[in-house]
Design brief:
456 residues; alpha+beta; BirA Bifunctional Protein, domain 2; Rossmann fold; eight-stranded mixed sheet; elongated
């Protein structure tokens, strides 16, 4: 007996309606990307392993899908290495490539590889799938699309200001009001680590802090203790766990905590510039909020960090994120090339729009009219009319078989096609078309030119 077909966990099939809705989101984002001057590029689905490994921290590296080498790959593994069962020894010998984890690291590789062709500052956007060996759950998949925009070759903080505006523009265009653009700065996190004497544990500290809204204060403290952060240091962190008030209030309290940290105060200065600029320009529907616990445990962020939260009342993780990465291209041989970028979470945005019923009804419009097939001669006459309608921009189809009329009508109903056209012997002789409204049941006999007008 044949095995029942299935797909891997964390992946999905999409029907016609879902594809239309996803395309609507992507086209909306793409339109805003282009309006802000970003140019499209594409990179391969998989990269050399050394391009990806070591760029996302230990947790990220574990989630990278490795691709087995082709051929007899085990022959490159020695007997001793094989018996050791050591992943660090065996994996490089049997896997030289990996599916991309995100679009930012491949973009950095692209910049270095094509640096002589690129005009800097280089503004690019990219909308492609990525893969992560994560535990599937609501809004978290193993295969999903990212929609990224980045600028490299400029250290100006006006880039961060524009990205806040871009987030606001996209979500306004999607009619998704009330999103919160959370912002922090990696320099502030470095300053906090300095103040509590944990400079050597910056990554451990930020990874734990980033989980505050997911696992709560006590479990974050437990994780920090397990990573070797002292009790005295954790006590000094206490004000961060209850930091509230508006942007200005939080900044003033941060200054008091970080008054002995030069790098921490530099991070505050950068945040104040972004906030004052946005306050001067204004946002349409989004709001900017300081979140000092925002860490996004990725090694390459060096300045501003962004994360976008869905409107209140919608249970969903972040629907966008990004930040400044001053050192990313240096790992591929191009130092001193600052970059900043943001990403939109297509799949999560889809779920939020669906929950809030924000998709326009018109985006799922498919075939508008189906011509019923009564036989060879009638079908040929119908096909000529179908061709003429298509040339006028009307979505029209001919049922391919001269099946029973009930079957053809049922097909139209199940497809949600609003009109059918009947061309029997009488219509064939008179050159007329009988148009039936599938909702009201009303029928009209029309000439072809009138059929155009009626369907338009």
């Amino acid at each position: 007996m044949a095995q029942k077909p299935s797909i891997p966990k964390g992946t999905r099939d999409f029907n016609a309606e879902e594809v239309a809705k996803r395309s609507y989101i992507m086209e909306t984002i793409k339109e805003q990307f282009q309006r802000y001057g970003f140019q499209p590029i594409e990179t391969p689905s998989f990269e050399n392993s050394e391009t990806l490994m070591g760029k996302y921290g230990d947790e990220g590296d574990r989630l990278i899908f490795k691709i087995l080498n082709s051929g007899e790959y085990l022959k490159k593994v020695s007997e001793d290495d094989y018996k050791s069962k050591s992943e660090s020894l065996i994996t490089p010998r049997i896997s030289e490539k990996a599916l991309r984890y995100d679009l930012t690291v491949p973009f950095a590789r692209y910049v270095v590889q094509h640096q002589n062709e690129i005009v800097f500052p280089f503004k690019r956007y990219q909308i492609q799938p990525v893969w992560r060996a994560d535990r599937p759950q609501k809004g978290r998949f193993r295969e999903f699309y990212q929609c990224d925009a980045d600028v490299v070759g400029s250290k100006s903080l006006f880039q961060e200001v524009e990205f806040v505006q871009l987030y606001d523009a996209v979500f306004t265009a999607l009619k998704l009001e009330g999103v919160t653009i959370k912002i922090n700065n990696r320099k502030i996190l470095s300053g906090i680590a300095e103040v509590i004497g944990a400079q050597d544990k910056l990554i451990d500290f930020t990874v734990a802090l980033d989980k505050l809204d997911k696992i709560g204060e006590e479990k974050v403290k437990e994780e920090m203790r397990s990573k070797g952060i002292s009790e005295d240091g954790i006590t000094k962190l206490q004000p961060l766990f209850s930091l509230d008030g508006d942007f200005g209030d939080q900044v003033e309290r941060l200054k008091a905590i970080l008054n002995a940290s030069e790098i921490g105060l530099k991070g505050i200065e950068e945040l104040e510039f972004i906030n004052s600029s946005i306050s001067s320009i204004g946002l349409k529907t989004a709001k900017l909020q300081l979140d000092v616990t925002l860490a996004r445990g990725l090694n390459y962020y060096t300045g501003a960090i962004f994360e976008v939260a869905a409107p209140e009342g919608v249970k969903m993780g972040s629907i966008g994120g990004g930040g400044r990465y001053d050192d990313l291209t240096s790992i591929f041989g191009k130092p001193d090339t600052s970059g900043v970028g943001i990403s939109f979470g297509l799949d999560r945005i889809y779920l939020v729009l669906e929950e809030l019923n924000l998709f326009p009804e018109t985006i799922t419009d498919a075939t508008k009219v189906l011509f019923i097939n009564f036989g060879k001669n009638e079908a040929l006459a119908c096909l000529k009319a179908v061709t003429a309608l298509r040339q006028q921009g009307i979505k029209a189809e001919l049922y391919p078989d001269s099946a029973k009329m009930k079957k053809q009508m049922t097909y139209a109903n199940r497809r949600g096609i609003p009109f059918v056209v009947l061309v029997g012997e009488e219509e064939l002789n008179s050159g007329m078309f009988t148009l039936k409204n599938m909702t009201s049941g009303e029928q009209k006999k029309l000439q072809l030119k009138d059929l155009f007008s009626e369907l338009q």
